[in-house]
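Loading example: each entry is read as two labelled lines plus one structure line.
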Amino acid sequence: MSKAWHLTSRPQGLPTMDNFALRELPDVPLETDQLRVRNLWLSVDPYMRGRMNDAKSYSASFQLDHPMTGGAIGEVIESRMEGFSPGDMILHMGGWRDGGVVGLDMMPNKLPAAQLAAGLTPQTFLHNMGLTGGTAWIGLLRIAAAKPGDTIFVSAAAGAVGSAVVQIAKAREMTVIGSAGGAEKCAWVKQLGADAVVDYKGEPVLSGLTQALEDLGKPGIDVYFDNVGGEHLDAAFATANDFARFAICGMIDVYNDGKAQEMKYLIRTIPARIRMEGFIYTDQIFDCMEEFYADMGGLIASGAVTMRETVYEGIASAPDAFLGLFSGANMGKMLVRL
Amino acid sequence: MSKAWHLTSRPQGLPTMDNFALRELPDVPLETDQLRVRNLWLSVDPYMRGRMNDAKSYSASFQLDHPMTGGAIGEVIESRMEGFSPGDMILHMGGWRDGGVVGLDMMPNKLPAAQLAAGLTPQTFLHNMGLTGGTAWIGLLRIAAAKPGDTIFVSAAAGAVGSAVVQIAKAREMTVIGSAGGAEKCAWVKQLGADAVVDYKGEPVLSGLTQALEDLGKPGIDVYFDNVGGEHLDAAFATANDFARFAICGMIDVYNDGKAQEMKYLIRTIPARIRMEGFIYTDQIFDCMEEFYADMGGLIASGAVTMRETVYEGIASAPDAFLGLFSGANMGKMLVRL
């Protein structure tokens, strides 16, 4: 009998355990084009917060009292789907549960055997070779069109997407300033290769960023990779060089509180001719998937891009892992191991 | 003896007459590559407010106790510059004065005789065939990549740039919603062809815009042409369709007060994948000048694009004309006739 986390009420602001319930799923026979799967790894990601609202967003809302979904790695234990056999390791969208029935709507894909044999762990396809690494790669190189020599500012640089941005940028000979909260995370971001780190818990973002630029002898930033919004985004507007590009990936600062963002430097959009663009992985990846796998696979194989994982254990811990994203509990990718 | 407006102190917030003084210019003999000019028309434009600050901006700051500069139409009365003769009508940057010496740094250009003969008035080169019309054309068609069928929202639609945007968009079969302040301006924007008008003095911008979209049976806006910033820009974020493009031309709401803009809907950048880009005319025009003159000349000749002029009389009125830009005193292009 599989168990799945259900959304039982729509959170106002920061979600709490009261919004979720772990319930058993009925044990049903497989229909055609279905798999039965035992999950090994679940992904929790900030974008899921948006799916907990009723509002229209780019991802469909979670339905109340239905199992939630999300990225997962599982092992096929029974198959009525062509091309899949018991024992196959798959990436699919039937997460937030320890297993169960996976249909075509959950987009099952076999993990490439060659890359697993070459040493890539299965959960890499939940981060650097999947949503988070792809988001970093697309945002930095395609949306912001960052190039060697550019000065990059990336917020939440100790997060899954941010830490990939730092490493891809360093591998491409860019100067990188990351922001992170607290000494431990900042030390790790430095270790990833960032040229400077702003501790947003220790000082206003704008002062830290200005000081970092001065220390590095750089007049401003050419690219901002935004995971945070708010004060970070405003500091980016304040320090943008002419023709700077902002790739807006997330605004975790405002996902929960829904407050207005106070933008003191937004007006610099005009004199600095700033281009700001929001993007999501699923719009872009199909145009560049081969290039992404080849490039990112190479960066991982060479050790240029690594990923720290913060792992919670057991299906019961999934909401805690998710909530930890908003309290800054993770370094690198937040995962649940079953 | 010519007279020129000098900036005597840097304004804090909204400028006042105390920041300016009209002073005589010394009568000096011409050097090589100089013209003596009698000005006929002066342009006052919102971007000049930025030049009154000491801060680095895209245009050089006005120096204290020096004559200010800006677009002007003049007649050559004496020439030591090759290619120019007395009687030539020129566009140049030696504005804010009734005449004087014009060097190469003021970029004198003869008005095309053929277009004058065809009926274009000289001051057209200070608006629809110059900075304001070019800004409208570039922002709408190049920066925002607006295309037939798109729904366009343009703020300050009764202003020089805004009224050109409305007309160019209508000539290209777009749906246009303009905003303007007060019944008279709104009526004029309707007359220009706008499908709906929001009176921002009569209602919150977002309610007006939402109502207009509903009346027109449109789900949202594809393009926002921003002259205003603040509440207008936030309403654009709130109503943007997926993949909307914002061309940021001005933020007259915040030029003077320097306050933070409260952006409640900025976060929609991500789910709606909005692209926002600041631009200035002089970066772009040299890449597309021929196309602009041909296209805009055609639109003016056919009557598709017209321009209402608000005219102040005499050199003494120039600061009043300029200050009127910020109190909404103008419909169409604000000019000073000498």
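The mean pLDDT of chain B is 93.
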